[in-house]
Amino acid sequence: MSFPSLQEQLDVITANTVEIISPAELEQKIQHSLKTGAPLKVKLGADPSRPDLHLGHSVVLRKLREFQDLGHEAILIIGDFTAMIGDPSGKSKTRPQLTAEEARQNGASYFEQASKILDPHKTTICYNADWLGKMTFADVIRLSSHYTVARMLERDDFERRYRSSEPISIHEFLYPLAQAMDSVHLRNDVELGGTDQKFNLLVGRDLQREYGILPQVCITMPLLVGTAGEDKMSKSLGNAVCFNDLPSDMYGRVLSIPDNLIENWCRLLLPHNGEGRRAILEGWEEEPRSAKRRLAREIVTQYYSTTEAEAAEEHFDRLFVHKKAPTEIELTLFSEPELPLVDLLLALGAAASKNDARRMIQQNAVSIDEERILDIKAVITLSEEPKTLKAGKRKFFRIATAANS
Fold first, then answer.
1. What is the model's pTM?
2. What is the C-alpha to C-alpha distance for residues 245 and 238, in angstroms, rounded to an integer?
3. 218-269 pLDDT, tens per residue?
4. Residue 134 confidence (pLDDT)
5. pLDDT value at position 300?
């Protein structure tokens, strides 16, 4: 197989990385690949602790895709077994463990979602329960003998918890060892991960050496800052843009990021050789609003299509620039001719509770046919002619009596 030159590959591989352990070994592995014609085996692990992938996951997935484009073998590990242990990375307390069924259910859609970035026809997908689940207790004891407690406590989160007398369960020590066994089993050349995975990646490197395998090169990628501009992207923090978000929601959430994230998001989330990426990087400081709109279109296009990205932009402009209702709103019919506004918001799913509905009304966030409703005790009269109800900035509903059907 023909590969790009050593320098061409290094230019692509090293872009946007935080750390490579070690650059000299990476060069040696690429040179060996060029000499033998054998592709590098590049591994990325993903524990299905949640069923959805977000743009933060795409940073390492895009680096894996770059290895694919260079002609190397991409291996995506679905950590259905290690998810039952729970990755302790960055945690201040023991992480809840998933059942085998929960881990498999969450992992079921991972490959489909990851294929929005990876070439599915050139990706090897593995479930680590296939080998970890076959290990006996004697195997685990032998595995544990290769690492010391002192080495484990070098890990930042373990050290913090140990010094502050926070409990550390023994099974958490097994997580990096189990993930390292993936590298032993696969005999991969390179492993990718976020900066929070550095310790786990290094254990894999150490364990390969213990088992007589040429140690993997570890490449860490930056953690993507979430839409609020402060913490790393996380669904639990409510600052995530997910692969499966609707195009209009994805577009709007990207536009919500602070201007100072435009360059970073562009470099981490768009293809390194893309025309859109170059245009954004060249002009974002002079025209941040235009650059952000271009970034939002490019990201939606990656996960959907150009047509849907343009439709998402039109939808956003109609709602927030021109202050008009969407062109298509599903009609909801009610049998009652009159309903308290609080009950109506709850029935439509516009509010999570009656208290939430009252709060929305008090905050001037509810209108019917563009007329603000400020009375929390308001009763809405419905007719055969549909009315348009707006709740908050983005929720629109068409409502009428059942007689309209």
1. 0.76
2. 13
3. 999 999 999 999 899 988 788 999 998 999 889 999 999 999 999 999 999 9
4. 94
5. 95
HEC per residue, 220-253: EECCCECCCCCCECCHHHCCCCECCCCHHHHHHH
Does 63 show up as a binding residue in the annotation? no
**Amino acid (1-letter code) at residue 118:** L
Q: d(Cα 148, Cα 152) in Å, to the nearest integer?
A: 6
Question: Which DSSP helix (H) or strand (E) runs through 116?
Answer: none
Angle between helices 247-255 and 288-303 (to 10 degrees): 150
Structure token pair of residue 299: 């990201």
Residue 74, SS3 per DSSP: strand
Lowest mean pLDDT, pick from 101-105, 336-340, 395-399: 101-105
CA distance 172 to 249: 37
User: Minimal CA–CA distance to 234: which of 115, 102, 359, 89?
Assistant: 89
Where do we find the tokens 């029935």? Answer: 347
d(CA 210, CA 62): 31
pLDDT in the model for residue 332: 86
| pLDDT score for 385 | 84
Q: What is the length of the chain?
A: 405
Q: Give the tens place of pLDDT for each residue, 353-370.
A: 888 889 889 888 898 887
Tell me the pLDDT tens digit for each residue of 78-100.
888 887 776 665 544 455 666 77
Q: Which two tokens stand for residue 166?
A: 């926070």
- Of 345, 336, 351, which is closest to residue 382 (Cα–Cα)? 336
Nearest CA among 73, 53, 174 for reference residue 123: 73
Give 45's strand partners: 77
> Which distant-in-sequence residues (6+ apart) come within 8 Å of 402 by Cβ?
333, 334, 335
Q: Which two tokens stand for residue 265?
A: 């998001």
Token pair of 128 as six digits: 């680590």
Residue listed under structure tokens 């343009």: 310
Structural domains in the chain? 6-221 (3.40.50.620), 245-321 (1.10.240.10), 331-404 (3.10.290.10)
Instruction: Give backbone dihedrals phi and psi of 125, rounded to 5 degrees, phi first.
Output: -110, 135
* H runs (alpha helix) in 284-340: 288-303, 306-316
